[in-house]
């Protein structure tokens, strides 16, 4: 699988957990065309995105013996692409909530030192 971004159709760019049954069927059809896979029986994947994410690699292989590995790896790649990124690490200080904004914590620490 390439490291580049996979260009999914616009309506499938949501997190897979939010995909409907139709979205899953469209993703299968897209993957079949995009990666020149053997025809995939979409009835074996008649489920929404939440259920799709519960499938193991073995489940994918069982449901699609010729394309299961590719589909599983493709889904993992999509999940990795869509993983939220943390922009900063939280600051921990006794008495401060981990939900406190970093600027507030820094300001409080500065006041404590005076």
TrEMBL record:
Q: In this protein, which residues make up the domain named PNT?
A: 1-82
Source organism, top-level taxon: Eukaryota
Task: Give the molecular function GO annotations.
Answer: DNA-binding transcription factor activity, RNA polymerase II-specific; RNA polymerase II transcription regulatory region sequence-specific DNA binding
Pfam families this protein is in?
A: SAM_PNT
Q: Indicate yes or no for the key word Transcription.
A: yes
Where in the cell does this protein reside?
Answer: Nucleus
| GO cellular component entries | nucleus
InterPro entries, alphabetized: Pointed_dom, SAM/pointed_sf
Q: Which UniProt keywords apply?
A: DNA-binding, Nucleus, Repressor, Transcription, Transcription regulation
* UniProt keyword annotation of Repressor present: yes
Family the entry assigns: Belongs to the ETS family.
Name of the protein in its database record: Transcription factor ETV6
The species this protein was found in: Myotis brandtii
């Amino acid at each position: 699988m390439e490291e580049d971004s996979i260009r999914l159709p616009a309506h499938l760019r949501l997190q897979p957990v939010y995909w409907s049954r139709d979205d899953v069927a469209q993703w299968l059809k897209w993957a079949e065309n995009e990666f020149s896979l053997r025809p995939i029986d979409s009835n074996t994947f008649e489920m929404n995105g939440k259920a799709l994410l519960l499938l193991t690699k073995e489940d994918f292989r069982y449901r699609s013996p010729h394309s299961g590995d590719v589909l599983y790896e493709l889904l993992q790649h999509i999940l990795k692409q869509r993983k939220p990124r943390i922009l900063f690490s939280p600051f921990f200080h006794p008495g401060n909530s981990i939900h406190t904004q970093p600027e507030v914590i820094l300001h409080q620490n500065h006041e404590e030192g005076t």
